[in-house]
Automatic annotation (TrEMBL):
<feature type="disulfide bond">
    <location>
        <begin position="28"/>
        <end position="219"/>
    </location>
</feature>
<comment type="similarity">
    <text>Belongs to the thaumatin family.</text>
</comment>
<feature type="signal peptide">
    <location>
        <begin position="1"/>
        <end position="19"/>
    </location>
</feature>
<dbReference type="InterPro" id="IPR037176">
    <property type="entry name" value="Osmotin/thaumatin-like_sf"/>
</dbReference>
<feature type="disulfide bond">
    <location>
        <begin position="149"/>
        <end position="159"/>
    </location>
</feature>
<feature type="disulfide bond">
    <location>
        <begin position="141"/>
        <end position="191"/>
    </location>
</feature>
<dbReference type="Pfam" id="PF00314">
    <property type="entry name" value="Thaumatin"/>
</dbReference>
<feature type="disulfide bond">
    <location>
        <begin position="84"/>
        <end position="90"/>
    </location>
</feature>
<protein>
    <recommendedName>
        <fullName>Thaumatin-like protein</fullName>
    </recommendedName>
</protein>
<keyword id="KW-0732">Signal</keyword>
<feature type="disulfide bond">
    <location>
        <begin position="69"/>
        <end position="79"/>
    </location>
</feature>
<dbReference type="InterPro" id="IPR001938">
    <property type="entry name" value="Thaumatin"/>
</dbReference>
<feature type="disulfide bond">
    <location>
        <begin position="173"/>
        <end position="178"/>
    </location>
</feature>
<feature type="disulfide bond">
    <location>
        <begin position="163"/>
        <end position="172"/>
    </location>
</feature>
<keyword id="KW-1015">Disulfide bond</keyword>
<dbReference type="InterPro" id="IPR017949">
    <property type="entry name" value="Thaumatin_CS"/>
</dbReference>
Length: 220
């Protein structure tokens, strides 16, 4: 367990606040540098796990895989995908393309809300699933999106979302309303339960009771 994870546990215990545990497994044949806000980051070699403790009430949480990273002894460097300002311990969200596991804990109705989002594109196949409190329905995005990526969305190490590339209203819903496009449908056909464009929430947001624990698995 990292120093940051221990600190989060102590904070939770001192305030008698329930924490959710995110068990993050790198099941890939290559190293993944996890990015997490809150939580920072962690290098995971193949088949290594990181247990991340997140306090109840956290909103806007993200966990994502970073690939092809190089860091020096001070934790500074860069990643080909998912880079967070060149830092091993992320304080900000990652740069596209990266597959996102997003969550908000113990909110309206004492529910957790979670999803896999492809709004920042795709770099590593990911499963995001609950593992406690009787909640069992998870989300899988394990298709070969990177290998089948349309030419106009291809990026080193991953596949961009069309909003990242074109930045237009039709792809980004800048005016508050839009419909699926043939490029967003590319993602939806391969990962039907993941966010593919900004108005996709009614089909792609899942809930569990507050206090649920979760697994995030890369290369399931």
């Amino acid at each position: 367990m990292t120093t940051l994870s221990i600190f989060l546990v102590l904070v939770v215990l001192c305030h008698t606040t329930i924490a959710s545990v995110f068990s993050i497994l790198n099941n890939c044949s290559y190293t993944v540098w996890v990015g997490a806000v809150p939580g920072g980051g962690q290098r995971l070699n193949s088949y290594q796990t990181w247990s991340l403790y997140v306090p109840s009430g956290t909103s806007g949480g993200r966990i994502w895989p970073r690939t092809n990273c190089t860091f020096d002894g001070s934790g500074q460097g860069r990643c080909e995908t998912g880079d967070c300002n060149g830092s091993l311990r992320c304080q900000s969200y990652g740069n596209p393309p990266n597959t996102l596991a997003e969550y908000t804990l113990n909110q309206f109705g004492n529910l957790d809300f979670f999803d896999i989002s492809l709004m920042d594109g795709f770099n590593v196949p990911t499963v995001f699933k609950p593992n406690s409190v009787g909640c069992s329905r998870g989300i899988s995005c394990a298709s070969d999106i990177k290998g089948e990526c349309p030419v106009e969305l291809q990026a080193p190490g991953g596949c961009n979302n069309p909003c990242t590339v074109f930045k237009t209203d039709g792809y980004c819903c800048l005016s508050g309303g839009c419909r699926p496009t043939y490029l967003s449908k590319f993602f939806k056909e391969r990962c039907p339960h993941a966010y593919s464009y900004p108005m996709d929430d009614q089909n792609s947001t899942f809930t569990c009771p507050g206090g649920t624990n979760y697994d995030v698995v890369f290369c399931p």
